[in-house]
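I am writing to request your help with a piece of structural work I have in hand. The matter concerns a single protein, recorded as an amino acid sequence and a row of backbone structure tokens. Could you please explain, in whatever detail you think fit, how the structure tokens follow from the sequence? Thank you for your consideration; the sequence and its tokens are set out here:
>
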Amino acid sequence: MKKVLLTSTALVMTAGVAAAEPSMSASAKLTYGNFGTGFNRAGETATNTAPSGTAVPDAAWTSEADLDVSGSGGGGTLTYSATLELDESGEAQGAFTIASGGLTFVYDADDIGGLTETGADGEDDNTGDYSISYSVGGLSASYEYDTDVEDSLINLGYTMGDLTVGLEMSENDGAVGGDATSTTTVGYTMGAATISLEADDADGWDTSVAYVSGSTTMTVGADSDDVYSVALDYAAGDMTFSASQEFNEGEATTFGISYAAGDMTFSANYDSGNEGSYGDEAETVINASYAIDGATIAAKANDQDEVEISVGFSF
């Protein structure tokens, strides 16, 4: 979690300005396991795989506690909000937001969400520090920046009826002075079918057609690497099923099943393209959880002998 010195805040009230009372929330979690440690077991920094035969780290106990304090206010022209966060490591800050009309500024160090890097657990970690966005009618525009390595992300979008058009200019390589990639996207919906096309200035492209019929969605796609794919999603009551298959240059197979009913959830997912990866990005991942009296008991495991059991509370 991000760290910054906490400071006291003075609220100055003026005529025509409304300020809400600060709100507080807290959570705690006790965990036992070694889930997501495979990336670190080999001392690697570039990939999320470890040499075969590397011993799985021993399971260990960990705990965390978080306290969030948030407040907001504003009038007819300007609105604002801020969040302060405390955890077991000390002090931290949340997002600070100022908005007026369709214009919004957000500062949230290393946590905006568009710019990312691969973390030690195989998941994407956010790196963006601030963003500026604007929307009016069907037009939208946003700019995100990482002050540490000067990465940036620009998005432009336009929607008119069933047609959507987007342009993304991204420099997300973690290097000062890196190259930017421009990507254009087009989407169009015709009844139950949705057509999507994406192309970038590095000669990459991707296209797909999705068709919805009742509880079933079928998607076919192709890309510039001569990979063709077919995917199927189906929902039946409390259960959902998904499966996909790649052909030609790519041969990845995926399938998954999930169940959610009342306080209990269960899911199992397989992705042959993730062979050798760890944590939530492993080839096979199983999750289960049960909520009771404000507590959530959860367990997960993967095909890399990584397991985790946790109990979480919210106050």
